[in-house]
Amino acid sequence: MSSINVSNLVVKINDLEILHGVDFFMPENTVIGIVGESGSGKTTFVRSLMGILPAGGAAAGEYEIDGENVPLPGDEKSWGNVRGKKLGLIMQDPFTALDPRTKCGKQITAPLPKGEADTFDISAALSEVGLSPDVANKYPFELSGGMRQRVVIAAVLALNPEILVADEATSALDVIIQEEILDLIVNIHEKKNTPLIIITHDLRILSSRTKTVLVFKDGEIVERGLTAEVISDPQNPYTKELLEAGKPGLRDVRLTFPNSKELMKAEHLNKHFGAQQALDDVNIDIFFDESVAVVGESGSGKTTLARTIIGLEQADSGTITFAKDCPSSVQIVFQDPYSSLNPAMKIGSILKEALRTAGRPESDVAELLEMVEIPFDFASRRPAQLSGGQRQRIAIARALATKPNLLICDESVSALDVIIQRKIIDLLICLREKEKFSMLFISHDMNVVRELADRVYVMKDGKVVEGGDANDVWNNPQNEYTVRLLNARLTEI
Amino acid sequence: MAAAKFIAKRLAEFVVSIAVLSFVVFSLLFLSPGDPARVLVGTKSVNPDLLASIRAEYHLDDPFFSQYFRWLGNALHGDFGQSIKTEVPVTEMIGPYLKITVELVLFSLILALIIGLLLGVIAAKRRGTKLDGAINAFALLGTSAPSFAVGLLLLYVFAYLLGWFPIYGSGDGGFLDTINHLTLPAISLTFVVCAMLIQITRSSMLGQIDKDYAIFMQARGVKPLRITTAQLRNASGPILTSIGLLLANLFGATILIETTFALPGLGNLLASSVTMKDVPVVQFVTMVLAVMICLSSAVVDIAVYFADPQSRSFKRLKLGAES
Predict the structure, then answer these.
(1) What is the pTM of this model?
(2) Which residues of B touch A (CB under 8 A)?
(3) What is the pLDDT of residues A106-141, one digit of tens each?
């Protein structure tokens, strides 16, 4: 039974104030949700409670756990009792949270004193999180993302923390795995009466798993209250915008004109990576002006399919044919806007390069920027000076510079915050109506797919398990896997 | 098995480099100006009979490649010819020289590893502080100062002015006496490679400082020393690779340092044999140095491979294609 009481918490990182006086009370045995976009200070907030701010970070304010004062900023000694023992932090990305060169068992016992580490029952700790004992002798790279996150949770639980913090603990995972991990965390909370803080940008997780909620924006808490009340009747304008953006779109599919002319047809595509079959006799077609989505979890082969269509991968067998009277101009927008733009080039040069490739005059840069609603003076900036959403707009403009017949979007909105995601989706819808290109949308997110796709293919283990009109798949899924995908995502707010 | 395949490939590369080097080394005789026979005569007085007998002995009138393959064949059987100066087979005379050079290089390497890793890690952990700045300045000084200049300075201060260490020679062969005689040369050799090691350690450690796994360890209250060890293990790839380069650098630098400190090592032997035009000795010493450099770089590459559990494991999971 533990509680946290924080008042007037101010956090500075290299003289830049990140948190401007946060007051926070966590009663015993509850689940608190913290929402906010990236950069809002929610991760800095929980990290300042554990004394693990980055270099140059300093926290000030009053901080108590169970009525005991925790000095701020504190030193290694004073944090020794807090880190891991009072607060256990489940990190976001299981692919980076574990030391790649140490076996999982050793990582779990790393914080324990020598004697305790030797007698610690690793098998029991692993079985508590649903893993078999042999995981102890495995390196992280030998495990899937979901299994790695279970190892992370076991490592946190090894210290019996009084309070659990899950910082976006599922957002790097596939939807179905997300539910499993969330269930695991919530079960631990219920079994051990451990208070739980869930940081998330996902409103579905918020509404289904938390009792109270804090909304962070620009380093302050702008709204707090019971989750149900905040969701049904948000008071703060930002909260309203956030909730609006997170609601699944309810537009009618097939806004675009149906066109019976086939643009691209891929037949019997097969592709192996070593023993793994990434594509297993895949057949898909895309018509002119049509938006087709491919959904599936990681490892399903959907990215390989996209890369094969654009020619970044070569299929082992099978054919890809484009309509005769149309040059096979395909462009792609990648998932991560932070790594898909050359950091050394200015935005203007990036776009000019694309225009040159297409044989268009360099003066069209202005037109491209206007198309994606970016002010013209951004042409002289470099990618690092742009936000994630702005970078993704540039990536879209770069792709459209060649006036492609087919635009492939490979998880192009999944790295973005909800509100930004909404804006990029709206931009894509608007651009398709104006520029008339076909789109192949790769995603794991059924809600995003529903808004953008006329037709859907569902992929699993390299195979297309279901395909058809988006409305039909949505309302009447035939395949058991599609049903699971939809259920994992469809909790209405 | 991926590991066996990797080792076989790396060893094959080693053999190829040595083969190419042997060709270059053999060509030295013909690249040096003048008549090879005259070169082989050395300092003895020249007369036509002697030249003719040398031509016959070394088959100098044969085509170049048949001479090369004869030399290579002999070399593979351990026959690198005789020293022109001493007329002793070169393979027999090299032992004591080799011992000193290897001792010197190992001594310097150990010093460089201790100091370089320590200072590199400290600089990375304290990045942006005055200490980091001081270590960086030291490393910059080390990379820009030539080792023989450092050697002369050390000699002047510690051997001449303070008298702590002997000025020249390798001592009586006892362990402590050897250490005593090799300390100053080893420090001057170390100075340069240690500076490189500091810079490489610092930059590859910096890449690990803010990694999620380190933050996660910190969040669980893992002791800082243990976190640093984990970071160092993850940063070890570039550091290990650089040790291969450092070894090559060390062997190269011994030539100047051994001359500076009058140590009778391979470098010194090489320098004096070049002056004497004692070609078989030059060829053999060069081959020995080349083999040691190539071998250390092969060993380092294999060590890098085995230090990474992911490359060590046979079933290479192809996770890269998705996500």
Answers:
(1) 0.77
(2) 127-128, 209-213, 215-222, 224, 226, 230, 233-234, 307-310, 313, 316-319, 321-323
(3) 999 999 988 888 889 999 999 989 899 999 999 998
